[in-house]
């Protein structure tokens, strides 16, 4: 086949929806764009794929988060590919999107460690219009997070370890946006067998101190679905 007499330039980026809990509400991390298009506007952390440095889109997403926020999140998952001629005013573009979870304390400390990299936290239920198609990306990520939270340990990655059962219960409620029966939730959570007790570690008053837990080591870096398809 003859080579075309034109070169097709397609923009390829990664964009990350980074979730954290702030003031008992689920928030997303946004950063002000330094350059056009949409210079000065809040947008998802993102950047170009570096052909020479990134072996795949996951490596690009990890690099972008480290560079822009200073963190390597405990959980990062590929979400979806958004691709068309209208999403970026510079031309035809592809965004390989990811979503990630991090504890707010870790996020704030990383901000200090990298010299005060600026970001904003916006409530997922009150997002202003964002550039490109970032509102759509957040919507898809939020649905994925809430759907998976019904049968997995995903919200635990928003907590610093160790944590109490009450903290886990509250976190699931904040993420899923619904009240969860405490007894049914406890049974479901421990049936999943993804948490382990921190032996000899309790917190609270002397009368009934709360047991502390952590995610089992085999689940500490990567979510694994456990076949629990029913909700809490």
Summarize the structure.
The chain has 232 residues and is an alpha+beta fold. Helices cover 27% and strands 28% of the residues.
List the helices and strands and how they pair.
Blueprint: E1 11-22, E2 25-32, E3 42-43, E4 46-48, H1 57-69, E5 75-84, E6 93-101, H2 104-113, E7 120-123, H3 134-149, E8 163-164, H4 165-176, H5 182-192, E9 195-203, E10 210-215
Parallel strand pairs: 1-6
Antiparallel strand pairs: 1-2, 1-4, 2-3, 2-7, 5-6, 8-10, 9-10
Indicate the CATH topology of the largest domain: Nucleoside Triphosphate Pyrophosphohydrolase
Strand percentage: 25-35%
Corresponding CATH superfamily of the largest domain: Nucleoside Triphosphate Pyrophosphohydrolase
As a whole number of angstroms, the C-alpha radius of gyration is 20 Å
The whole-number mean of residue pLDDT values reads 88
Q: Share of helix among residues? A: 25-40%
CATH architecture of the largest domain: Alpha-Beta Complex
Structural class: alpha+beta
Report the top-level CATH class of the largest domain: Alpha Beta
Structural notes for this entry:
The protein is of the alpha+beta class and 232 residues long. It folds into 2 domains: 11-149, Nucleoside Triphosphate Pyrophosphohydrolase; 154-219, Winged helix-like DNA-binding domain superfamily/Winged helix DNA-binding domain (Arc Repressor Mutant, subunit A). It has 5 helices and 10 strands, in the order ββββαββαβαβααββ. It has helices spanning 57-69, 104-113, 134-149, 165-176, 182-192, and strands at 11-22, 25-32, 42-43, 46-48, 75-84, 93-101, 120-123, 163-164, 195-203, 210-215. Strands 1, 2, 3, 4, 5, 6 and 7 form a 7-stranded mixed beta sheet that branches. Strand 9 and strand 10 (210-215) form a beta hairpin. The protein is elongated. The chain starts with 10 loop residues before the first strand and ends in a 17-residue tail after the last strand.
């Amino acid at each position: 086949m003859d080579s075309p007499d034109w070169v097709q330039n397609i923009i390829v980026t990664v964009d990350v929806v980074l979730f954290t809990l702030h003031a008992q509400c689920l928030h997303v991390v946004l950063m002000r764009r330094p350059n056009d298009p949409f210079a000065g506007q809040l947008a998802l952390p993102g950047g170009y794929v570096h052909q020479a440095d990134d072996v795949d889109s996951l490596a690009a997403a990890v690099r972008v988060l480290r560079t822009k926020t200073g963190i390597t999140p405990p959980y990062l998952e590929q979400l979806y590919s958004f691709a068309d001629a209208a999403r970026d005013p510079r031309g035809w573009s592809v965004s390989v999107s990811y979503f990630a979870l991090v504890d707010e304390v870790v996020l704030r400390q990383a901000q200090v460690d990298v010299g005060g990299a600026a970001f904003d936290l916006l409530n997922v239920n009150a997002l202003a219009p964002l550039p490109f198609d970032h509102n759509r990306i957040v919507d898809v990520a939020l649905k994925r997070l809430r759907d998976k939270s019904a049968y997995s340990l995903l919200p635990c990655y928003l907590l610093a370890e160790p944590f109490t059962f009450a903290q886990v219960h509250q976190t699931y409620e904040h993420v899923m946006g619904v009240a969860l029966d405490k007894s049914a939730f406890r049974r479901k959570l421990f049936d999943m067998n993804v948490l382990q007790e921190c032996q000899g570690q309790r917190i609270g008053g002397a009368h009934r101190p709360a047991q502390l837990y952590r995610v089992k080591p085999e689940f500490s870096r990567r979510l694994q679905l456990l076949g629990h398809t029913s909700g809490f």
